[in-house]
Amino acid sequence: MKIAIYHNLPSGGAKRALYEYVVRLKKTHEIDLYNLSTSDENFFDLRPHVKKVYTYEFSTKRFPFVKRGYNIIFNLKQLEKKIAADIDSRNYDVVFVHHCQFIQSPFILRFLKTPSVYYCQEPRRVSYEYNFKIKHNKSVKALVGNYLLSREDEINARSATTVLANSYYSMESIYKSYGIESKVCYLGVNMENFKATKQGKHNNSRKVVSVGALDSAKGFEFVVKSISLIPTEIRPKLIIISDRWNLGYKSYILNLAQQLSVQVRTLRQVSDKKLVEIYNSSRITLCGAHLEPFGFTALESMACKTPVIAVKEAGFRETVTEGGILVDRDEQKFAEAIATLSENMDLLEQLGKLGEQYVKKNWTWKSSLNKLESYLQKTSK
Description:
The chain is α/β, with parallel strands linked by helices. It has helices at about 15-25, 70-90, 110, 125-130, 130-135, 140-155, 170-180, 220-230, 245-260, 270-280, 295-305, 315-320, 330-340, 345-360, 365-380; strands spanning about 1-10, 30-35, 50-55, 95-100, 115-120, 160-165, 185, 205-210, 235-240, 265-270, 285, 310, 325. The strands form two sheets. Strands 3-2-1-4-5-6-7 form a seven-stranded parallel β-sheet, sandwiched between helices. Strands 10-9-8-11-12-13 form a six-stranded parallel β-sheet, sandwiched between helices. α12 (about 315-320) links the parallel β12 and β13. α8 (about 220-230) packs across α13 (about 330-340) and α11 crosses α14 (about 345-360).
């Protein structure tokens, strides 16, 4: 097939997923990339893996703050209308569309005449989830701007030919938010990169790791508070690895950790090689994100034979079924699970082996790609 790919993604799991798809799709399909200048191509760069790249200039810096939301909508709509026309003129079989960091569901979906497959990692949470709405709608102007963006996002999402979701939780969220029937296309794990090394977890260093954007949605406050409830003589050190962070939230977490006598080290934009090294040298990976739609972290950790303790909600209930422990969002229970598992080397090893086997059997990119290709083929003209 001749496939056009469109995205305006920042760094993060969604961009990683798109990269994994592209490097596999290119083997049997002709792929061109369409993106905006605001997308992050330094993080899992797609450009070396496609035939042609069409990058369109876009900036929000010139917009006055008061009218920023309206101007983003107007300018994005006009630009993506042009991009859609460009794509339609080049005779693609299908367009594989991903999120826009400014609005979520991109305008291009509304204007394309070529059939589209939209991989919706999650609905626009600031529009549909209470905690996000409270955080972002602190003024009348913000409330109006969010309403405008939400309305456009919904119209765009409903314009896609086919919508894919990364989990059954996401499928349900998409239906509740947009009224769209989506199809689940699970993501995978790159087992060539994420694997156990000779570096063992049976060491004197009590170290745990948590991975995700350093933002309140990822639940680092919960993780730090939970660790603080573990007796000091066995309290583990926490490493937080983030692709991007909110500086105010980072300061809050570090101050909180200091107040609670929890040792925390933050790392930003580490390589996969370094990430694998940290997984392998950590006893446990902690996943405390709020309503995480999927969560690469848990699966990648288990692929490295590092057990996972995750909150029992959203996508984690689908991914952490073996090789890890699901716990209610209760700081005391989470602390007890960390303390019990980190001090039991036999159980750590047992769960590590189970997790590795589970990921190898159920979460391969080959399986994910086969499913994606079937949806692309069914949707294509």
